[in-house]
Specification:
CATH class: Alpha Beta
Structural class: alpha+beta
Helix content: 25-40%
Shape: globular
CATH topology: HIT family, subunit A
Oligomer: single chain
Strand content: 15-25%
Order of helices and strands: EHEEEEH
Strand order of the largest sheet: 1-3-2
Length: 124
Amino acid sequence: MAPDQGYLGRCYVTLKDHKTDMAELTNDEWLEFAGVVKRLEAGMREAFGATLFNWSCLMNNAFQVSPALPHVHWHVRPRYEKAVIFEGEEFTDPLFGHHYDPGQTKKVSDDMLNSIKQKIITSL
């Protein structure tokens, strides 16, 4: 889970093995990733009613240091057509249907972050 929940359910999917480039993934790893995508998206739809998902694997930050330290991972931003109320807190997506806003942030407590995580896990 990402500590920033500007997009409810925002999280990271990281390879178990260290790979520096997506081209290094084996066929088995691509198949496993496809299964993760299906389960995670279904879980977030069930848990919070996510409408669509923005997946990104940019890795730009890895090259802001020298030597570069890339590690393949994906950022997952669920997108919502309508506001979601979860445990009394409102989560909105004002740019729904457009590119996500990297500046849209929402810090939540550790307890809320854990509740979000548990809701997704129980919806898988």
